[in-house]
Write a structure and sequence with these properties.
Length: 182
């Protein structure tokens, strides 16, 4: 291959990558057969040649790597699970609800037990959860179906419920997802 051919091939490949959104197929034909007047055959095929960070197969372009993506204290490089902190807070259900014979209304949720009276905000949130999802907070936790206990522990998975207004400020409440005890 001479210098002139290299230039033509380079220009053609650049044009193909430009038209193909940084992706091109390269097919190398057998030139000897074409010179002999026969139908040329494929000598080699390179299915996905890429000029940038493109994932082969589904043509998903990746962004240019940036040093901030490797920084633990930057939202760009932060892990989705731990938000860049290196640790993740999780619930230990047996510590949060140590006495499963109690009901939610009686203060089964240990961190809320000192404040769980019929007038507390936490109690009203539990009542809202029960009303929205159809369970009673007056049933012992051990008898509460797992799906309802999971809602109390882990939240409503983005579904909004009617949250009570803080009695100090009045109002009728607001709609928001319940994040759970996490």
């Amino acid at each position: 291959m001479n210098v002139e051919d290299r230039g033509r091939i380079s220009e053609s490949l650049e044009k193909a990558l430009d038209i193909g959104d940084q992706l091109a197929n390269v097919v190398i034909m057998d030139g000897d057969q074409a010179a002999g007047g026969r139908e040329p055959k494929i000598k080699q095929e390179i299915p996905f040649l890429k000029s940038s960070h493109v994932q082969q197969g589904d043509s998903v372009a990746l962004t240019e790597l940036d040093p901030r993506e490797f920084s633990f204290n930057s939202p760009h490089g932060a892990c989705e699970e731990c938000k860049g902190l290196g640790t993740k807070l999780t619930i230990e259900p047996d510590l949060v609800i140590p006495n499963q014979r109690l009901t939610l209304a009686e203060g089964a949720v240990r961190p809320w037990s000192k404040t769980t009276s019929r007038l507390s905000w936490y109690s009203k949130v539990l009542e809202s959860l029960g009303k929205e999802f159809g369970f009673s907070i007056s049933v012992a936790v051990k008898d509460l179906p797992k799906k309802y206990l999971d809602i109390v522990l882990y939240g409503t998975d983005g579904k909004k419920i009617r949250m009570p207004a803080d009695s100090r400020f009045g109002g009728s409440g607001y709609d928001a997802p319940f994040q759970g005890l996490e």
